[in-house]
Design brief:
Strand order of the largest sheet: 10-9-13-11-12
Helix content: 40-55%
Number of helices: 23
Strand content: 5-15%
Distance between the termini: 70 Å
Radius of gyration: 24 Å
Length: about 550
């Protein structure tokens, strides 16, 4: 595959698209499929056939269009977006191409949810057919790979990533270029690149949506990373609960191999790289790098002490680069557009954009991509549309089970790595759950502790026993049966588990408890000293 051949594929695809005057995009990602997204597409296809419009209008299945709460979503080439479409609406939608939009189904796009976003990772989501490599190529796909292989040395690729300021989007925010540089310099008989697609946070669906909507972008990012660090073999570790993402990844890998963009002598160069999928059983702990490596190797997914870090001694004891889906998805546009372009977005220490899964008690539940540094208030009340039913905002939880719950006084803080950490939370992989006054923060802490307790691999005592005991104490508090001594013990356990657990699961498990103790101490006091839950959630089973 030469640059000229790639251009030829792109031009052929663009000409084919231009030959059909109208295109209707139907979301067939996991968020819309349960709402009859595929049935809507089938009905539109059937109606096109009945009208003999195949040369006039094309029905295209695409990835996530963002506003999941209003699905199934359908967009047209004349810029109209329709919400809550049913198969029975097929004829009306086609009539609307000639007679004006279907007003009852229109979804406004001149609102902050759409206008405040800046799409880099999601630029192709909802636009291209994720199962056709030709559409990805026509959208500048694989240009960055060919540029890297034919015009840049591996150190130059790494330098570009370093200067961009890209940080790992999996949670910790470690500088991506620095990690690549470490793997590049490490000595081994073989090197590996691993994509961590084991997205396990409750309420998180960012990586799944990217893989379902634009799988080739992730493959391209992995290929560029492999060239930069000197790897010839890669793995995508993805949980079995993501069957649609798995299906589209398999299709994408076959298509890339067929065109010579993946496999031996990529694009006619001396660089070779192969990618395999590894399907995980859904253990949250396998999001931790060393546990993920153990699972790929066929062993029980449990962490090991670090150092040595995977960058020096990872898969099969060899240097291994591990980044998550969103991190790899950022790589091709950085190579195409330059590090200065990317570094100009975001804040001084948190560059670029971040994809968030906005969920919970908020009007606009869905997938959004915004510049780093946007405030929580803008996320919740502008992009999110505020709290439904006229209720009051209480807290927003960021970072999944490893994150924290932030109150209204934190709403004006910027969403960036350092500010979130200072406030007692983390960026995490991008889950953001909004809560109103109907939520009891002690009960919320118990929910996340139950998750961590259940997902603990049990290898180290602080996590195995500590999370159990913390959950027991929180359960006692929510039953309105706790004493002040129980609260003291809970605080001591938080410190113990945080500082002595083997891996990040245990080390971060106390975060929801610590943040709710910090910002909602009066709720704990009310439960313990007055036997009352201000939200009216706790103690019901006891009273009954």
């Amino acid at each position: 595959m030469t640059p000229e051949e790639l251009d030829g594929i792109a031009q052929t695809e663009l000409q084919a698209q231009a030959s059909i005057p109208q295109t209707i995009h139907v979301c067939v990602a996991a968020g819309c499929l349960p709402c009859q997204g595929q049935e809507v597409k089938d009905a539109l296809d059937k109606e096109i056939g009945a009208r003999n419009w195949k040369g006039q209008c094309r029905i295209k299945g695409v990835g996530c269009l963002g506003l999941c709460v209003e699905g199934p979503l359908v967009s047209t080439s004349n810029g109209k977006l329709y919400k809550r479409v049913t198969p029975a609406d097929a004829a009306a939608l086609l009539d609307g191409l000639e007679n004006g939009p279907v007003e009852r189904l229109l979804c406004p796009t001149d609102v902050p949810f759409f206008q405040r976003q800046k799409k880099i990772v999601l630029e192709n989501s909802g636009v291209i057919d994720p199962e056709r490599i030709e559409e990805y190529i026509a959208a500048l796909g694989y240009r960055a790979l060919i540029e890297a292989l034919t015009e840049m040395t591996p150190p130059e690729v790494i330098e570009k990533i370093v200067k961009s300021g890209l940080r790992g989007r999996g949670g910790a925010g470690y500088p991506t270029g620095l990690k690549w540089s470490t793997v590049s310099k490490a000595v081994g008989t073989q090197k590996f690149v691993v994509c961590n697609a084991d997205e396990g946070d409750p309420g998180a669906f960012m990586d799944r949506s990217v893989l379902e909507s634009d799988p080739h972008r992730v493959l391209e990012g992995m290929l560029i990373a492999a060239y930069a660090v000197g790897a010839d073999e890669g793995y995508i570790y993805i949980r079995a609960e993501y069957p649609l993402a798995i299906k589209r990844l398999k299709i994408a890998i076959r298509q890339a191999e067929k065109l010579g963009l993946l496999g031996s002598n990529v694009c006619g160069t001396h660089f070779s790289f192969r990618i395999e999928l590894r399907i995980g059983a859904g253990a949250f702990v396998c999001g931790e790098e060393t546990a993920l490596i153990a699972s790929i190797e066929g062993r029980q997914g449990t962490p090991r002490p670090r150092p040595p870090y995977p960058a020096q001694q990872g898969l099969l004891g060899q240097p291994t680069l591990i980044n998550n889906v969103e991190t790899f998805a950022n790589v091709p546009p950085i190579i195409r557009n330059g590090s200065a372009w990317y570094a100009a977005i975001g804040t001084e220490k948190s560059k670029g954009t971040k994809v968030f899964a906005l969920a919970g008690r908020v009007q606009n539940i869905g997938l959004v991509e915004v510049p780093m540094g946007i405030s929580l208030r803008e996320m919740v009340f502008e992009i999110g549309g505020g709290i439904p039913e006229g209720r009051q905002f209480k807290a927003v939880q960021t970072g999944g089970p490893s994150g924290g719950c932030l109150p209204s006084e934190c709403l004006d803080m910027p969403v960036e790595y350092e500010s979130l950490a200072k406030a007692g939370s983390i960026m995490g992989s991008g889950g953001m759950i909004v809560m109103d006054e109907g939520s009891c923060m002690v009960d919320v802490a118990k929910y996340f502790m139950d998750f961590c307790m259940t997902e603990s691999c049990g290898k180290c005592i602080p996590c195995r026993v500590g999370t159990y005991q913390m959950h027991r104490l929180l359960d006692t508090i929510t039953k309105l049966q706790a004493t002040p001594q129980d609260l003291t013990l809970l605080e001591e356990l938080c410190d113990l588990v945080k500082n002595t657990s083997l891996c990040g699961l245990g080390q971060s498990a106390p975060n929801p408890v610590l943040s709710t103790l910090r910002y909602f101490a009066e709720e704990y006091k009310s439960h313990i000293e007055h036997g009352q839950c201000v939200a009216g959630v706790c103690g019901k089973e006891v009273q009954a």
